[in-house]
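Please, does this match?
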Amino acid sequence: MSVPARLHLHLLSDSTGETLETIAKAALAQYDDVETVRHFWPMVRTEAHLERILQEVARNPGLVVFTLVNVAARRMLEDRCRDMGLPAVAPLDTVTDALSGLLGQAAKARPGRQHALDAAYFARVDAIQYTIAHDDGINADEWEEADIVLAGVSRSSKTPTAIYLANRGYKVANMPVVVESPPPPALFGLVGPLVVGLTTGVDRLIQIRRNRLLSLSQEGDTAYIELDAVRRELAYARRLFADHGWPVIDVTRRSIEETAAAIIALFQQRRDATA
């Protein structure tokens, strides 16, 4: 069996396509050295639109992955892919069929239903707004309203982790740990929020900070990237976390998604323990 020089991956969805992108990313991560050309087709809701897409698929044959709930459109796609000798995969079918069997009812076949403007949607919007307004130590007097407060030295992934968590519906404040500037007293009186300390390896932190300075066209040796100074910063942060019994996550080898998953697990454990 010949191996293609590059893989054309066609993602067709009758909604935003976020689910398909996540599935494709997770699957492709299991393979090394694969050159992938992604063709993204969201909001496919008419056969005329599908016909135009199928012409493009014919010009760039490859794997077709889809989430289409319209029976006619789905049958058209599967028939045409079969005629072209191309695999067409509906990754949600197995889960949907299992749920239908357990629940004793058919799926509603409504495209984009998971994106409905319900209470959870508006709660997520509220969480994002809160998180942006409480970035980098801002509005400490409102931290008690947060679900989670992240603390860590500069460039320890506080802000991107907070934003990711906000998109999952958590209100997150974050605070920089600075040796020369003690944390605001409000931090030590928090009752509701889970406070999590973020730490990282010295070498990794210096590398990230150096790249940050270069991106700002700033050069030269400063305490910001000086080895002993960075070590003192991290040691100070670890003492602060330990003194107050806050859980600590080392982000050195973690992606933002992995760090967020660990924080969510801590949050749920704390919530279950106090329920």
